[in-house]
Amino acid sequence: MRLSNLLALSVMLFGYMFMPVLAQEMTRQFGSVEPTRSLIIRSTTDISVFGSVVEAFLDTQPGLAITYEQWGSNDLFELSLSECREDVPGADLIISSGVHQMVKLVNEACALTHRSVQTSGMQSVLRWRDQLWGITREPAVMVYNRALVPSFEVPQSRFDLLDLLRPSLSRYAGRVATYDIERSGLGYLFAFSDSREATTFGALLESFGRTGVVATCCSAEIIEGVAEGTYLIAYNVLGSYARSLSRNDDRIGIVLPQDYTLVLSRALMVPKQARNSADATRFLDFLLSPLGQAELRRVLLWSPLLDDEGESVSETSLRPIGLSPSLLVSLDKQKREQFIKRWRSSFP
Amino acid sequence: MLSWHITLATMSLTARVSLAVATLLLIGGVFVSFAAFTYGRDAAREAYDRLLLGAANDVAASISVQDGKPLVDLPTSAFELLALAPDDRIAYRVIGTDGETLTGYDAIAVPSKRSKSNVQFYDGDFIGEAARFVSVSRRFSERDLNGTVLIVVGQTLLARNALALDITRNALAALTVSGAAMLLLAGLVVRSALKPLDRIGEVFARRDPHDLTPMDPAVPREAAVMVSALNDFMARLDRQMGSMRNLISDTAHQLRTPVAALRAQADLAADETDEADRRVIVERIHQRSVSLGRLLDQMLSRALVVHRSDSVRREIVDLRDVALEVFESEDHHLLAPWRDVNLVIGDVQILVLADEHSLGEATKNLLHNALKHGKGTVQIGVDVQGDKGCLWVQDEGVGPSESIRNALGDRFTRSAASKGDSAGLGLSIAKSVAEAFSGKLHLSESDDSKFRTTLALPIAGGKA
């Protein structure tokens, strides 16, 4: 018995050595110094944004320590999937903006089921199978440089953006940025959702390719580039980041596209092999409680752009990316290959 | 066990019918529930199988050939179709012409047996959960690709089970409601159907204990059996009580005079000093008491006859047996040994429906009358006249006096009693017997001045 255990352990260790190197971007410890319980959260959300929410939760949970690991969405997905398949305990809670990846994890029976008063009160698009919950509300927006883009040229919709890029000598050529969909799970999700949403996507791809749109990584960098004037306009960046930066930086303007605005809800799941699922579900219930909601609003993950701020778009043009098994299509091997091939052909 | 028995025997009809209906409903309910469950399961399976097939066909249609390879452009619509079962996990796998998985989950099993149809449904397992799969094959006959691509689409069973449960539950709810309604209705119907019984019971409860008149027979057919049986019973009771009353009053009436006479004689005897005179008186007392005994005998016999005619079941009796028995009892040798008595019977049975004992008593009384009051040879005979079987006693006298004949049928004849003589009573017994068995008593004189008393009773069945 013991021998076989040892054998299994060594096989596991051996297996780890040859696994692709997946690493978190950042880790931070929260909570009591002498904890009686501990909780590991892996998330794609920046610690700087989410940290205060975690602390608000810890205020209600004495004796709990939280290890918060910040990950890129693709790495997090791969790690979670392999841990699920090999039944290795890892995170107790996973929060990712790559909701299509989360849907796939749930579809592969990697998640624990949880029902509570809070979860049953949620909209159906924000939960799937009682295993996956959408906890935030963040629009995909266009960000522009206030100084360099005259107000009459600020694109209010994708059509306006197409119009700006149409002239052969457009000064926007080469100065529009968007996510690199191969490196960013979120970028892929937005692009894929765009392709499903409207035919504009084909025109956008064509015009992005023609005018040499820059595909790069990560919300913060892109928005920083816009602020500094490297880029004039950024397409499909996460509104929550843009909004938090624009609070302290009046160089940045934010537009919710009028034709339609994708709305992302970061997905949360408790892996089936979680060691501390009790505190994990407690954290979920906290996020859904009024206290947690207020905290999420405060850190702009429940975006004020969509309700109380002036330039809101009409409710009908909002397109929430619902937690539905149809998101599986985006991760289909051949579909993904074709989609990326199509993308790449536009970005030489 | 015993108390259970009693409970069962005294259980109200309403409860019986309700119990029967409830049992019926319960058994029916079990069957219908089973049927509803089966139906629900099948309906859910069919509905979601179509969804599955639709999705699989969607996927199959999306396959194109590029550079000699099948390329799956997985359609979102297929998954949106499958997402109509909102909480079910989706499994899919596309297998190329040379058996390699083009896309989807490698681990999904393909149908184990080959089917001629290019669509095949089967049950399986998808990462730890039972699931339903459909496989659809699509043939390619292109220049650069020739073969079959197999598309497998599956789904876990949550929505199916929920729908099956829902259908079953709805059916059961309807069943329960209608069952309860039926039970209630059955109770009401039974109660109203049994209302006549309550009415009858009420009539009985209100009835005076001495009231033995028949009940109103206008009741439902089922209860009429009971009511008519009750009426028969009461009529019999009435008759028997009547005869008992008669017996008592007759006895009191008839015995008073002879007993008074006896007492007078006894008083005389007590006062008489002369031995010879006293002997005469004692002799008279003896005669009187013999006559009284005879009277008593007859009265009891008559009471018995009347009682038996009501209470004893009628049987087939051969009149010849009755005549023979009376003849052979040889009472007449004791009463009048000097008289000739003959038996006149044939060799053919004469069957009537009567009580043998009563007939015997009646015949004995007639024989005694003939011996006592008649003359010459006495004959006891049996014959058939028309549809009647006749038992007769004949002598060569003139028969009873006119007054006795007229009084015939009265319960008693005072004169006879007072004389210590009982000719009328004997005839009265015979008449009662005849009438008790739907017959008649005839008194007749033949041409050759013989007197005959005949008991004529309807012949029963066929003559052998």
From TrEMBL, chain A:
Keywords on record: Signal
Query: Pfam families this protein is in?
Result: SBP_bac_6
This chain belongs to which protein, by name?
A: ABC transporter substrate-binding protein
Q: Which organism is it from?
A: Roseibium algae
From TrEMBL, chain B:
Please state the Enzyme Commission number of this protein: 2.7.13.3
Q: Main site of residence?
A: membrane
Extract the GO molecular function terms from the UniProt entry. Answer: protein histidine kinase activity
Q: List residues of the Histidine kinase domain.
A: 250-461
Q: What is the annotated localization of this protein? A: Membrane
Which residue windows are transmembrane per the record?
20-40, 171-190
Tell me the ranges covered by the HAMP domain, including all copies: 191-242
| Leading EC class | transferase
Question: Which keywords does this chain's UniProt record carry?
Answer: Kinase, Membrane, Phosphoprotein, Transferase, Transmembrane, Transmembrane helix, Two-component regulatory system
Listed under catalytic activity are: ATP + protein L-histidine = ADP + protein N-phospho-L-histidine
Q: What is this protein called?
A: histidine kinase
Which species does the entry assign this protein to?
Answer: Roseibium algae
